[in-house]
Amino acid sequence: MKDKTPRDIAVDDQLRAAGAEGAQWLSAAGWGPPVTVPVQKAARWQQETRARMLAAQVDESCTWCVHLLDGGPQPVVVHAEHPTHLLCRACSIAARPRRACLDCGGPAASASPADGREDVFMGPVAIYTRLRCATCHRADRPDPLTGTFGNGPS
After folding, report:
1. Residue 70: its pLDDT value, please?
2. Alpha helix (H) ranges present in the chain?
3. Which parts of 27-100 fold into alpha helices (H)?
């Protein structure tokens, strides 16, 4: 095992803090405490979203909102319908009314998490999220795992 430099240790600490901040933000927003789900047991939508985001980082096609360009590690939000563009929390919240349903591609028409049609998975630093329109949400597509934070605020 390679000895970690002070820089490596500092970056690891910052990443852990960013992950804790993301989980705390979700919990404070009414999502409740996170549960652990190994990636291989995550919902299909989350696995696909994560794979596309990681591939975009490798081929350097990944983009970020301007708020993620300054400062150190912080939680990032990955929308399932556009996983190659990472967002800060504020930009993710602002985009909510315009987001598409991941199942049918139509408008999700979801103004707030309170409607329970958003599924969220939390990785070490990234928050993966999908929205579904009311019709697709009611149809409850055959992927029963919705997220590591349940079905949103009640």
Report:
1. 76
2. 6-26, 44-58, 89-95, 134-139
3. 44-58, 89-95
